[in-house]
Amino acid sequence: MNSKKFKAIVLRTGGTNCDLETKIALEELGVKTEIVHMNRIDDKNLLDYHLIVFPGGFSYGDYVRAGAVWGKRVLTRLGGKLEQFISEERLVLGICNGFQVLVEAGVLPGDGINETPSVALANNSSARYECRWIWLRVENNQTPFTLTMKKGDILNIPIGHAEGRFLADENTLERLKNNSQIVFRYVLPNGEDANGIYPYNPNGSTYDIAGICNEKGNVMGMMPHPERAFFGWQLPEWNRAPLEKGDGRKIFESIIKYLEEKMS
């Protein structure tokens, strides 16, 4: 992959703790990647980049609500710039806390910025922090984040969150289904629907939703951590049946495939 021409910016703030792993994953595939603190974002021109990543962590300690404070900062500091970035079909990825931020900023599930979130990522049904490997099924393989996959493919990727229960009212859920905005769902190891069964659905998410995109498909948020399933040595079976790479790598490879096709 000739990805050296692509540039990514990984944003961080107080409490972010997955920025370095995300940078390493992108740079492993040749993407020039910068980690930039929100306090320094005014020094950067977002349109110099092809990808913005909001990584995982516990921004501002999640003291108000997971992702809420950072989400409001995104609204006030990046609102118009981020809307332009998205309208030009550049990519935005929110992972775990980053997904929460995109929801709180109203970036997902719509195509613009909205001060009033239309979905929520609430406390896990177990009322505790869940850290485990789960199985995902690809529901939409036509997004820039799933181009290297087939619909129905099963991915094994870890989660680590206390507030990942995706909630939406019936009308919003139907709209997500009809617009093919549901990208990943939690499933059983054999790929069958989890139907809310714990721990296969680790947080009680409505319709087993683990990741969604906007209507255009160029903004995606997901609770599982693909950067933690990138290298073979990160996988649970690394010392028994070592693999060359993990399933999370496919998401990053899909990003590069999209950029190569878009810029060709």
Description:
The protein is α/β, with parallel strands linked by helices and 264 residues long. It has a single domain, classed as Class I glutamine amidotransferase (GATase) domain (Rossmann fold), CATH 3.40.50.880. It is built from 5 helices and 11 strands, in the order E-H-E-E-H-E-H-E-E-E-E-H-E-E-E-H. The chain has helices spanning 19-28, 68-87, 97-104, 170-178, 249-263, and strands at residues 7-12, 32-37, 51-54, 91-95, 120-122, 130-138, 154-161, 165-167, 182-187, 209-213, 219-222. Strand 1, helix 1 and strand 2 form a beta-alpha-beta unit. Helix 2 packs across helix 3. The longest helix is centred in the N-terminal third of the chain and has 20 residues, at 68-87. The mean pLDDT is 94.
Average pLDDT confidence is 94
**Strand count, sense and closure of the main sheet?**
9 strands, mixed
Outline type:
globular
Helix share bin: 10-25%
For this structure, the CATH topology is Rossmann fold
- Tell me which CATH architecture applies here: 3-Layer(aba) Sandwich
First-residue to last-residue Cα separation: 13 Å
Strand content bin: 15-25%
CATH class: Alpha Beta
Order of helices and strands: EHEEHEHEEEEHEEEH
Number of self-contained structural domains: 1
Low-confidence segments: none
What is the CA-atom radius of gyration, in angstroms?
17 Å
